[in-house]
Amino acid sequence: MNLTGISSILIVISLLITCIKCEFSFMSMLSSGVDKVSNTIRNIQCNFGECCTSEYISPDIDKLDDILNKEFYGQEIAHRVIINALRGHLTSANPPKALSMSFHGPPGTGKTYTSQLIAKFFYKKGDQSNFYHFFNGRNDFPLQEKVNEYKEELYNIIINSLQKCERSMFVFDEVDKMPEGLLNVLVPFLDYNTWIKSWRFTSTSINTRKAIYIFLSNTGSSRIIQRLLTLWEEGKQRKTTKLQDFENLISVGAFNEKGGFYHSDTIDSSVIDHYVPFLPLEEVHVKKCLKKAFINRGVHPTNEMIEEGLSYVIFGPPPHNIYATTGCKRLEQKVAAIIYANKKHRIEL
């Protein structure tokens, strides 16, 4: 082949390479343009609605810790466990699994209140966030015979939420009122699985590890009260009790008591990270609840008003009667009635 032929071939090759580069450059520009348009659309959407970004999800555990220090009466163990669990989960960019905490204790000890506080300092919109899901066992899952239907519904809700935001939170209240077997559907989401298929017949998968699950239940309450009473009789101060004094008896009680956790795979598979005891409240704690309820209504209570509020509280178990049977529950209504009665009395004078 002569030099002219070789030169022609080289020119053709050069032109082909140039065309390929042009096409690649064009595709890159097109892709970049699409990304910019997508980002612009996303930014506009986020200005008008909630997005799974740091603007809307910015957990402030320091503030939560501060509020619990001030308003979480008599629950030193629960306070420590919850704050440490949240910090441990959130400081890891790739946690090994979703965080799951189960709150157990008598009514009126702060279980629901605490879950609402967590949402408040987790999401910009608090418990009104689209990524916060609250279920009530009594209202949302009332019938045992529909447990399979509830399972499918719950599975789809969780999948859809995790697709929209990996930092979703799911709170299940009154677990003891849920149908047996319902919570088994959560095991794949709570286990040490990095990904889970979003739909049965596709390869699309989602990350399950960054979500938070909180269960609220009265199961194990009698065991908690009896254990605390035994420790008190042995001379052990409430503030010196530890998680280890209660955690195992809570899990055993929840597993064997009727309700959502009864013989549940969530317990049997050891996918619940923390069983958190909410201890029964004593008179000193109830007085603090009463004072806070009065102040929230703009009234600084007298000792007589506090004592009147305290007169509505029943303490047990006999013979010591040192724990409020319903904690601080119902006190808000009693305080409202006391304030009204005092105003009416002053007017009549």
From TrEMBL:
Alphabetic keyword roster: Signal
A Gene Ontology molecular function term of the record: ATP binding
Any single GO BP term: cellular response to misfolded protein
Entry's family note: Belongs to the ClpA/ClpB family. Torsin subfamily.
Annotated Pfam families: Torsin
GO CC term, one of those recorded: cytoplasm
Family matches, as InterPro entries: P-loop_NTPase, Torsin
Stretches of the chain forming a coiled coil according to its record: none
Protein name per its UniProtKB record: AAA+ ATPase domain-containing protein
CDD domains with a match to the protein in the record: AAA
Signal peptide stretch: 1-22
